Amino acid sequence: MFQFGDRLLALWRRSFSLGWPIAVQQTLNTLMRTVDVVVTGLFSPAAVAAIGLGDLYARIPLRIGMGLGSGAIALSSQETGRGSDDVRDRAITQALLVGALCGVPLALAGLLFGHALIAALGAESEVVRLGGTYLMIVFAAAPMRIVGLVGARSLQGTGDTRTPMVVNASANGLNILLSVGLGLGVWLAPTLSVVGVGIATAVSRTVEALLLVGAIGSDRTGPSLARPTDLTITRQLFAISAPSIAGGVSNSLANFPFNALVLLFGTEANAAYHIANRMYQQLSGPLYRAFRTVSSIVVGQELGAGRPTDARYSAKAIAALSVATLGFSGVVTFLGAEQLALLFSRDATTVEYATEFIRAFAVSMVFIGVYFPLSGSLTGAGDTRTPLYAQLVGSYAFMLAGSYLLAVTLGYGLVGVYAGIVLSYAARAAIVAAGFQWGGWEALAARMLSEREKEHRRSE
Description:
By secondary structure, the chain is mainly α. Helix content is 87%, strand content 0%.
């Protein structure tokens, strides 16, 4: 009994050691975007709209980078656990190269079609002018944005979560300084408005990518850069990453019709939803992203070391800690929902709706606590299809169709939308739990490890 308790506490201590830098990193990312919105809000409503519409497209390199990062963290964690530095280094280098190449078409699209892409959303002429220029600048750094995300996830897979945190903190700090300086024309800097905010984003993402690649190629971190010649690694990287990219993109697309559904109940309801979503991301985002990444690291390394039983135990233990942490956060959020809503608005109707939306997210916290660490565990094994299915069912069958059925068809109004949100996360949790319990993720990881080992032996 005591050995079991000691083992569990040791795993939770390791999870905390790996996870807190990730939580800090995610908090800083949120702060950086908040500063950009605040700065542009000082210019004009058109400037805010231009940044907002530009960022809808800017999520594309984010989703690609996160998807490729899923493949990178799976391969790097497994090879770290196996102790195969050569294969690990090839996997990381090839992931970086693929990421850079994937960003090139986006950079060209921004240069050639930046204004047209903003105009396609129905924006007025001033928003098109500002947003098109902003998008052109941000998309120019798309290759670096993707490389930065892949580099961070690659290092995290080796167990190094602090280097990405330090680099990300430095890049975000630079972004904030440049956004304020170039946007508002502080001291000797020119006043460039939206263009300045775009330049700040592009420069900071470029610096972040260069620092991470430099760290990987230096003696300061465990991995090194290697010649990217292993086609087996490339094939596996795409096999793992493609479902993850598809899931991220589909989740983003679902937001458009869901916002239209909420707008049926008025502008105040839509504003309330965005307030609640922002609070959800701010309060729980750093936590669930940390648990997801830690699960990928630990499970991937255990599988690479040939310990599938330990991998399953670790996944369950991290999920238990996640449920307890996010469940407690949910209780606190539920009880303080009205006070949280009042931080954003004093309009009585908006506050009333926002309070209920926040409570819906709070009730969902226990399911979020299950979904993210288990999806991270499956990703560490190389199974990104099960999380994709969970995202598709949760977003489209429950958040969209379920909310519409309850709210409009059956006439429950916003109560139906609140229920749809909770059911969406409950469905995601149930699907990944079933995939974790009965899916063949251990066998999948073993097969991929064997394929890479055979290719490595042939290349020697």
